[in-house]
Structure formats: structure tokens, C-alpha cells
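Write out the 3D structure for:
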Amino acid sequence: MKTDTPLKVLFQTRPQDLLPIIGETGARVLSAGVIELPSIARRVDMVLSLGRGRRRYLHHMEFQDYHRGPVAFRCFEYATRLVARFRLPVVTTVVYVRLPAPKRLSWVERVGGRVVNERHFEVVHLWELPAERVMALGPGGAALVPLLPEPNLRLIGEASRRICREAPAAQQPDLLGVLHCLSLGRYTAEELARLIPEEVAMQSSLFAKVAAKSRAEGLVKGRAEGRVEGRAEGRAEGVQRVCLTVARHHHPALAARLLPAIRACSDVRRLNMWVLRAPELSDAEFERLVTGGGGAARNIERRAPRPASRSTARRRTARK
């Protein structure tokens, strides 16, 4: 998963905690959200509406794994269109997750050697933030711990506990979901399961988005190839997470009982079948399908009328 997705969720969930990271200490957050600009469709990663005294302005953020493409021009375009739409001053910060990344960023337009347009953008390198500073920012900062340069499972556990202890219950799924997503690739699923409450994290809107996207991609690929195959362990874990999310959505009363069976299944085709069947089955049927394995699937096939045999058809004709 690209890191911009969890960062968007994080800044939308706990923007006030994270203002010091983008140089906005002392401001108050009035709103935070993804902004879609009209005309040629452009979706801006994150825009905070901030206030200082009586002054109101926008702080626009772009999240980048690393520096690539015409970032400065894109930020210049976004900032200009935001000013035109909202008639408010706009500050822009580009947040980089890893190298390569510039220390300074600006867009300068010259005509005949004369500068006609110039805009400077703030730059933040997340990997340079000290651990103690990040943790001091509260639950929002705690979710950024996986991006620190040195892997540290102890710190991941501390961040998870702080989120559970200090964040409102409604925010905990998204914050733990961000913590989990940003940790993937550095730690195994087993290590993370011991530190981050999976039952809470899997309720995150982040996983709901991933599940919807995975289902759509799986259906497209399945139709194109005629089957869904996946031998890689990493892919099986990903489909397990999708299956758990779908089970919690369509069969919430069963989710806890089915968790061991879903996590024990490494057959991607079977997992995908469970995902596709979950919306159309009752709780009892879905439980039999998952706990009974492939054999149970035959007992709950869609109830379609069986075609009559030729002999039966002849007897019916004779009666008429």
C-alpha cells in the first residue's frame, strides 16, 4: 500500500497532534480533508483549514514516498487553484517518507531571464524526526513511529498502547490501522499481531478501502484469467485481511469465531471464494462454508431449480 493513503487517514483523524511536524505550532485546526478541485479533476492529498487569532488560511500537504516527477509544478498548480477557489492564503508542505528527497523545493517561472512567478514550499523528512518528539505529539504522532529510521518493536508496542489509552474509542481503529499499515514490510504479521489489537485495527476505514479495492481487482483478474491463484505467503496474508474485513461487515456476530479458521487458511482461491460468497449467505451458511472447508461449499450452493430428467419430462407429458 502506498504510504499516502494511511497518512491521509492519520492527518484527517488527528490533525491537531501533527501540526508541529509541518511548522504550525499554535494554530488551531478548523477542518481537514481531501479536496477535489473543479474543471480538470485534481485531488489534493490533504488540506487543513487553520486559524491564528482572527486570521484564517489553508495548509495544503502532499505526501510522497520519495521525490519523483514534477512535484514542485504540481504543488504550484494545486496552491494556485486553492487560492482561486477559496480566496484564502495557502501554505504548502511536501511530506517525504524516505530518500531521495530535496531539502528545499520551489517553483520558479522565468521569461527572458525575469522571474514572473515564484512559490516556495516547505519540506518535511519524516525519517529525521526524533522518536521522543514523535511520541510527544500524542496518539497522532504515535501512529508515525514505524517510519522512524531504526526498526524498534518495543516502540511499536508503546505506540499501540498509547493509542488505546489516550485516543477516543471512535478514533482507535483508524489510528491502529495506520500504525499497522506503516509497519508492514518491516515486521512480520505475527510480530504485529502481538503488539497491535488486530480486532480493533481491522475495523479501520483504511482496511475497508483496501478490501473494496482488493475485491474489485480480484474480480477483474479472475474474469481475465479464469481463476485466482496466489502462492506467495504475503499475498495469502493480504487476502486473509480482506476476508476478515468482509466477514466483520456482513457477519459481525461470527467474526470472532471465524478468525482462527480464516487466519489458518493459506489457500488464496478458497479465501477469495469466501469473500465473494459472504454477502449472499446467511450467518449459518457462511459459518459452515468457512469452518467446513471446501466440502461445505457444496451444501450451500445457490438454490436453483434442477432441470427435469428426460424420463420425468415424458411422464409429465403423458399425464397431460
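The radius of gyration is 25 Å.
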